[in-house]
Predict the structure.
Amino acid sequence: MGQGVLTTGFARVQGELYCEDVPLERIARHVGTPAYVYSASTIRDRYERMDQMLAPVPHRIHYTLKANSSAGILELVRGLGAGADVVSGGELHRARRAGFAPQDIIFGGVGKTRNELAEALDAGILLINAESEAEIRDIDSLARERGIVAPVSIRVNPEITLDSPHEYIKTGGRGHKFGIPHDEALNVALAAAELPNVELVGIDMHIGSQLTRIDPYREGAERLASTIAALRDHGVSSLRYLDLGGGLGVRYDSEQPPDLARFAELVLPVVQATGLELIMEPGRFLVGNAAVLLASVLYRKRSGGKNYVVADAGMTELLRPSHYGAFHRIQSVQQQPQHAIVDVVGPVCESGDFLALDRELEDVQPGDLLAVCDVGAYGYAMASNYNSRLRPAEVLVDGDQFAVITAREQYDDLMRLEIAEPEWTRGL
Ligand code: LLP
């Protein structure tokens, strides 16, 4: 199975940048800037590719909400047949509001509170990915109080060295806070299988994000398969799912995106041999290439021999460049003949507030529109109100139509939770 060309849904037509059949300029006029603009067909394309790639084995695709949890995006992926992967009570709430059936939701994360675990059990979700023996015991006692048996999967840290582009997004190496170390997993799983109010239904891993190589998945899956075999040798027969997490990378610059055909070839036979149903938790792969951040140029200036483009979006709208040193292509929405080397910076009062450094870019002028590319994953989801900035609007494009799926924040939203006349309580 070939991977084919990964379309992005964004293209130039006579020098003007479009999202599907809609000129980005038209959207900027309608909704203003900054705004996130998503291509529905790109998300559909990625989902279908992944679904086809996994077709040789029974599988479930659980979209990871943390990549982008806006209702409009959730409804789209749910409509494609995806389940949800949540990491907090807030995400569980969002998933249910977006119409995911409880049996299509899994709940992971290294620090779930008892309240969050209780909410998950009360909702009746498919399974909880547990990350420590203490958590499994908490789940057991919460399930006992409710007179139920809780479906639990164990997140194993397979301790694999990885090629993630940034330390912060590696999760499956030795000494990371995530999961249960590989050499302890069997004992923890056996202990879990003994608990009366827990049913051990799965084994899970998530080794990192923006991975471009497939071999670590194979290596990790083999380690999990050996734990599964050992559990069966000990008479455990309740396992139903093998969850290989998310992490498949996308192209931001010149990376070679992961070869899905190679995933099928290398990893699926390991899954098949376990006889378990495969769960995948993709985030970035489904939505990463599916959006641009539209911003306006406010000013051009020079300082210390540097050329600056000051935009109306920065680290508050897109944190990835300043937080991870991440690269995002930037294009002028109207093609321009002249180019310049510039820093593209935002309005926030921090020197680390930039979208690109020393970048060759079209020689844009105040009023021009910029498209910051491939921002569908961990873009809007990581936006903040720092400097009391309003979070941007989100727009979904489908063919020749577009709709605002998240309104731009308003000043009153900023102060909604602040109490004008606080009620004082005596501290003694
Ligand atoms: N499953 C688990 C348990 C995870 O922790 C994550 C992401 C995923 C699935 C989805 O991974 P993906 O398919 O999206 O790579 N904010 C960072 C990325 C953090 C990823 C955290 N975990 C960034 O902007 O690059």
